[in-house]
């Protein structure tokens, strides 16, 4: 059941209304139950959206709507105007402002919000409606300690000063999320893309995988884009949920594991209108091990070649495999979960 409380709105025509709607947003966020950090981010988002109305449209409307669902509660923020429109790719960059002022950009708004959508008129030139949602998720103490062991090795291409790969290991309520991210190409531009994806994933690791991919698609729109694979291990029901777009390699070690696990990988680049990933869920056994790696490592290796290390820590296994199958012409990241 969804309960929607009374919306509050503010017509934005000047900086005075921006200040007023910031105050209202802070009050509503506190009433809903957002903590201090969340409240500050919500106020920043409302301030950015309201300020953009003045910069680009001279007047518009900001609406704030508290929402209560069965297992979560949150706030919907809508900003509507009939201005000249904007280039969405440019607007998603941090610090972009066609009016010559220093905004922190819709890219930062995207990272701060759990859901973010831009609706424009068909001509793409007049008016815009931006809808953001931020949720509070129940977060009780973990029922038990994380049963998984993680190993990670990530190194830049030989001769490159920065690494265009990234990874995420994030613990949540009875679950662990891991990701391997490969920015397109290598060097600083690849690193920029990979870090944009990593920041969004870390901020929104509790979201369903499909929503995370959608958010990263937006976050990487002004970059070269990335390929990435995400896996969520549920401790309570011992399951693995997996999704991938692009050429991140995935291997599972374990009795009958190769026959049981059917991963469907979509081709594409996240940030460049990538297709939605196919989400798969499989039971997970304590004797299994998962490997995710970028194409800086050869895909022509088998768990059998390293079976003599099976009972050693995941970090040791990752280092042994990385050293054995790494290729020098690209960034190389390997993540092991066992």
Principal-axis shape equals: elongated
What is the tally of beta strands?
A: 15
User: What does the oligomeric state look like here?
Assistant: single chain
Predict the CATH topology of the largest domain: Phosphatase 2c, domain 1
Per CATH, the architecture of the largest domain is: 4-Layer Sandwich
Ends apart, CA distance between termini? 39 Å
CATH superfamily caption of the largest domain: PPM-type phosphatase domain
**Helix fraction by DSSP (H/I, runs of at least 4):** 25-40%
Name of the level-1 CATH class of the largest domain: Alpha Beta
Strand content: 25-35%
Which stretches are poorly predicted, pLDDT < 50 over at least 5 residues? Answer: 95-103
Overall pLDDT, averaged? 86
Write down the domain tally.
Answer: 2
Note down, in words, how this protein is organized.
By secondary structure, the protein is α+β, with helices and mostly antiparallel strands. The protein has 2 domains: 135 residues, Histidine kinase-like ATPase, C-terminal domain (Heat Shock Protein 90, 2-Layer Sandwich), CATH 3.30.565; 188 residues, 4-Layer Sandwich (Phosphatase 2c, domain 1). It is 28% helix and 30% strand. The chain is built from 8 helices and 15 strands. Strands 1, 2, 3, 4, 5 and 6 form a 6-stranded antiparallel sheet that branches. The chain has a 5-stranded antiparallel sheet with strand order 8-9-10-11-13. The longest helix is centred in the N-terminal third of the chain and has 22 residues. About 3% of the residues have low confidence.
């Amino acid at each position: 059941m969804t309960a929607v409380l009374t919306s509050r709105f503010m017509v934005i025509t000047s900086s005075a209304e921006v200040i007023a709607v910031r105050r209202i947003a802070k009050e509503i966020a506190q009433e809903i139950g957002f903590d201090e950090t969340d409240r500050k981010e919500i106020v920043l988002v409302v301030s950015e959206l309201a300020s953009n109305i003045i910069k680009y449209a001279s007047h518009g409307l900001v609406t704030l709507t508290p929402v209560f669902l069965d297992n979560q509660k949150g706030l919907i923020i809508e900003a509507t105007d009939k201005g000249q429109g904007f280039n969405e790719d440019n607007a998603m960059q941090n610090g972009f402002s066609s009016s010559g002022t220093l905004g922190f950009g819709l890219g930062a708004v995207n990272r701060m919000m759990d859901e973010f959508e831009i609706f424009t008129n068909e001509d793409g030139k007049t008016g815009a409606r931006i809808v953001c949602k931020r949720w509070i998720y129940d977060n009780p103490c973990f029922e038990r300690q994380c049963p998984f062991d993680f190993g990670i090795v990530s190194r830049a291409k030989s001769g490159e000063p920065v690494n265009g790969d990234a990874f995420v290991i994030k613990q949540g309520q009875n679950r662990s999320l891991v990701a391997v991210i490969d920015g397109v190409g290598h060097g600083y531009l690849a690193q920029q893309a990979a870090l944009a994806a990593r920041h969004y994933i870390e901020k929104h690791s509790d979201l369903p995988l499909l929503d995370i991919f959608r958010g990263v698609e937006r976050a990487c729109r002004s970059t070269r884009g990335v390929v990435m694979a995400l896996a969520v291990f549920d401790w309570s029901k011992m399951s693995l949920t997996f999704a991938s777009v692009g050429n991140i390699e995935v291997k599972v070690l374990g009795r009958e594991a190769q026959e049981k696990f059917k991963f469907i990988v979509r081709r594409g680049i996240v940030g460049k209108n990538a297709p939605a990933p196919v989400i798969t869920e499989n039971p997970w056994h304590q004797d299994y091990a998962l490997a995710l790696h970028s194409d800086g490592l050869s895909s022509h290796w088998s768990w059998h070649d390293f079976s003599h290390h099976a009972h050693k820590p995941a970090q040791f296994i990752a280092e042994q495999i990385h050293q054995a199958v790494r290729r020098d012409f690209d960034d190389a990241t390997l993540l092991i979960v066992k």
